[in-house]
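2024-03-11 09:14:02 INFO receiving multi-entity request
2024-03-11 09:14:02 INFO entity count = three
2024-03-11 09:14:03 INFO echoing inputs for audit
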Amino acid sequence: MATPLLETRALSRNFGALAAAREIAFTLEAGARRALIGPNGAGKTTFINLLTGVLRPSFGSVLLKGRDITRFSQAERVKLGIARTFQINRLFRGLSVLENVYMAVSERVGAARSMFLPAGRRTDVIEESMHLLEALKLENDARHRISELPYGRQRLVEIAIALGLKPEVLLLDEPAAGVPSAESHIILDAVAALPAEIGVLIIEHDMDLVFRFAQRITVLVSGAVFAEGTPKEIAANPDVRAVYLGQATRE
Amino acid sequence: MIFGIDVASILLGGFAAGMVLFIVSVGLSVTMGLMGFVNLAHGGFAMIGGYVIVLSMNRWGVGFVPALALGFVATAAFSVVMERLLYSRLYRAVELDQVLFTIGLVFFMIASVTLLVGPENQQLQLPDMLRGQLDLGFITYRTYSIVIIVIGVVFMVGIWLGFERTRMGAQIRAAVDNRRMAESLGINVNRLFTFTFAFGSGMAALGGGLGAEFLGLDPQYALKYLVYFLIVVAVGGLGRVTGVFYAALIIGVLDFVLKQYVPRGGTLYIYALTILLLLLRPQGLFGKPA
Amino acid sequence: MSAPASPLTHPAALALARRHRVRIWEPLPWLVAIAAYFVFPSYLTFGTEILVMVLFALSLDLALGYAGIITLGHAAFFGAGAYAAGMLSLYAGWNEPISLLLAAALVAGILGLLSGWVLLRTHGLTLLMLTLSFAALLEELCNQFIEYTGGFDGKNLDIAPVLGAFEFNPLYSNTQYLYALAVLFVMFVLVRSIVYSPFGHSLTGIRENILRMPAVGTPVQWRLAMAYSISAAVAGVAGALSAQTTLFVNQTFFNLEKSATVIIILILGGYGRLYGAFIGAIAYMALAHFLSKAYPTAWQLGLGLLLIVIALFARNGILGIGARMLRRLGGRAA
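2024-03-11 09:21:47 INFO inference complete, emitting structure
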């Protein structure tokens, strides 16, 4: 077995008495298309926070290409090739779309340390940022400020920024969240067009998106891995249905 | 002077000054903990309230306790007007705007009082009962200082009980801990804030008036002691009544001791201690860890 | 439709590539400053004070306007630079002005780096109190060593002529003014380059959304400390400049009033816009010069009112109001 791209071993996180993550054993291969689903409060965003370094685990480890990165900071993990998007946009609202993506690309290529050459002279960064925008069909918005964009396209900028980091692992936290159904196809298209070689993990509630996108699905319930398999297997799994239905009847 | 008596008199003096700091700062701590609003004009409310108390006694012959009540109510009412008209516009604003606004407000307050009353220091005319010395057995000390200490403790216990035993107190504590959660539970945080702002300003008024003996009272009071109030609040921990109390006592005693033994440059140690404490515990001694 | 041409010709790319170009009105403040030299020969002392303030406010803009660091203690670095220059000239016999400026920048910059690395982990009231206390601490230390520093009474300084030829004559401020203008110009070019660099861009990112930056791979603490350190160094140069041109230094160079005044000046002019420092300094100091001595209480009243109005309605200062008016006149820009 080749070393998985991303792996967690017994990853756990407690908040006082609450076990938000319980001994999660998880692997992601290069080129994977994985969906992480589960009822509300299952700990999906906590898991992403543990993977990216926003949270430190109470126990267990995170490995990237076999290397233990559990002690590494957020920024260090980004440098090693893990990128994420946020469930609620964290964009630079006062800046233009191009400037937003520039931020990520410039940081990645190390331009952000340079203090005396104008940002505009780094045509390599500008060109790459524009290519990214074109790939996501955002080039017409390049000059607009984030605050001027409809929400769906703002979500795309979230993804553009993450892609600007040329990640090997991409973690998307509910990319379609909050996007009006009239616009949600642009998210679907963008996700479908992601580079083939990167490993992608999506948290989603939109089952349409999940089943169209995922090669494998991991189901998280109460912080633990409940089930894992191909979309067909998960759809047919009666326990998974019970967990979701149970959630539905409670509401 | 026997060593023990020396220490007792220093502690009493420091406690008295600390109590004044506590009474003035407790309102600032709670409002900052509740709304996160940086109110640098808090000293201005203390100053204005102090003026109401002192002037009503000196110029209109109002009695001591009625003057205190008048100062509390007038300042609380004034602060409600300020809060509803001006402060509330800046709740969602950036910290910088809040700092700017409150600095402007305190300048305005100082200048207004200077123009209306004059820049001189105002003396609090103590009622005869509170003058002179009180014999405590092991030491004879200024009556007024002891009274202040008692008042301070009574306030502290009263406010603490208010926080712990009343429904509103529970709501305030919940909102200080986690505003969003409190709001989602149906607590009207804005209304709570108006109340605490009024109460806090009223307390500040009492502190300004009662403390005129120790800290003086002139228009510059609002800025002169602002740093002390802020230190007490930051070191105590935002929104923590016990925190403000102990921090005020510590700073009060420390300042008093330094004034006696290190007359020049004593404040250096207070700043150094503040920096040390805030670096070790940024949330304050009693504050909630980040 | 995506054109077959290079993406660099896209209007957004062109705008970004040209962002740093000198705009046509940018030489204006400098021409005004030079003109003032000839038009107001009797006000050159006051003019020099303004230039020093502009530099100080410019340093704060880097920290506050671009990196978003709110500090009530920037005078710590102003004073540190002033005393670095002062002490070296008094006790080490080193009084060549330009090298003293460099020494001041170094001392203040190191102070900024060390304090920034430690303090900038906090935020909100804690950070405010720490910056305030740090400056107050330095002022008290200055007072403690009053034999060396002169405390409140301060020390008079002896500075060698600039470039060996131009003397600082206290009665005749021509040299001081031109010297200050030259120093301001050099520092401004420096700060402007930083602001338009990718480093400056990342500072804007930290200011706009600090939580996003680690997720983009930015070592945020380190960036902030660097920005704070540079801002401190420039403030140190301003302090040394003030000490040199007035041939005097005292502990008030560290005080809270200085820190508060420079924040007011920057916000009045408009922070995050580089030239806000110019406008704010001129406006504030002109008003203060004429009003605060004659009618101090009315000045405080008016200033308080002005700050309240700015906080409520004009948080981007004079330049912000100007920009709003330009937008209305020119229609909504794309």
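2024-03-11 09:21:48 INFO post-check: The first strand of chain B starts at residue 133 and ends at 135.
2024-03-11 09:21:48 INFO post-check: Chain B has 13 helices and two strands.
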